[in-house]
Amino acid sequence: MYQIHTADQYLWENLNLDNKLVLEGGTSWGNTTHRIAEKVSELKWKTRLVSVDIDDDHFDQIEKDLSSHFEELQLRRADLSQLDFLANNLVDVVICNYTLSSVNQFPLRAVKTLREFYRVLKPDGQLVIMEEMPIWSVEKGDYPYWSQRLRVIKSISVLKAMAHFNEIHPTDLEQTLDMIGFRNLHYQEFKEIINAEMATRFLDKRKQTLLRGVNDIDNEHLTKGFVEITEKLVHELEQTKEFSAPAYILKAVK
Ligand SMILES: C[S@@+](CC[C@H](N)C(=O)[O-])C[C@H]1O[C@@H](n2cnc3c(N)ncnc32)[C@H](O)[C@@H]1O
After folding, report:
1. Gap between the Cα atoms of 80 and 207, Å rounded
2. Atom 17 (ligand 1): residue with closest C-alpha?
3. CB-count exposure of residue 249 (10 Å: 0-12, 13-18, 19+)
4. pLDDT one digit per residue (tens) for the chain, 254 residues
5. Residues spanned by the domain of 221
6. Distance 219 CA to ligand 1 centre (A)
7. In this structure, what CATH number is given to the domain that contains residue 66?
8. pTM for this one?
9. What's the number of domains the chain is made of?
């Protein structure tokens, strides 16, 4: 596997957002929105950003923190697979980080989303996607915390028959984008650093789901076993500040 020094170098290579309309897919708590805002300010770009998420929980805070960085910042609650409010051939750049696997909780919605990205992008418009590698493609021993955390989260979700993140392998993503019509496809794998505290919060949320007793398979030993595994992992993660995860950035052009 070819490792680049930092994902940031690859992310910003040949990516100029000056006088551009950018669509961000998956605002969430604004990690990538902050990353874009910092770059825009550093290089004094005049950028209009439309950031879309199905969940608007963090919009107010992000608007307060970041609107002064942009020519225009629009936070929009919508499903990325139905971007009806955006015309065809309108957007210069789409950036979609760690969101496709979330959209992909529901089969084929990720494909509809990629088709929407294609529709709203101008000819020659750029697409940038950042994602974690699928767990089945990674040696457990190479990323022990990441691997254990994902296995616990996914197992609890399956146990409760819940929809859960489905990471997409970069070669499958490349082929799907090619089928849609994208060109100049290439990707790089890298190690992403994950904040352990944030990772613990999500694990704890899953533990609460487990204890809520909805959709159970009515086996208290199984539930107790998973609670123990989760608590042990949370404890281990509390001892470490951060851990690494296998990720990739894929770039394409319409
Ligand atoms: C892991 S978070 C994104 C992280 C963020 N982009 C970053 O770089 O840190 C995934 C986000 O995707 C959003 N999401 C999932 N399915 C979606 C959909 N169909 N349309 C819009 N947003 C969606 C979730 O609400 C969640 O906020």
Report:
1. 29
2. 103
3. buried
4. 344 457 888 999 999 999 999 999 999 999 999 999 999 999 999 999 999 999 999 999 999 999 999 999 999 999 999 999 999 999 999 999 999 999 999 999 999 999 999 999 999 999 999 999 999 999 888 899 999 999 988 988 888 888 889 999 999 999 999 999 999 999 999 998 888 888 888 888 878 887 776 666 777 888 888 889 999 998 998 898 889 999 999 999 99
5. 7-253
6. 33
7. 3.40.50.150
8. 0.94
9. 1
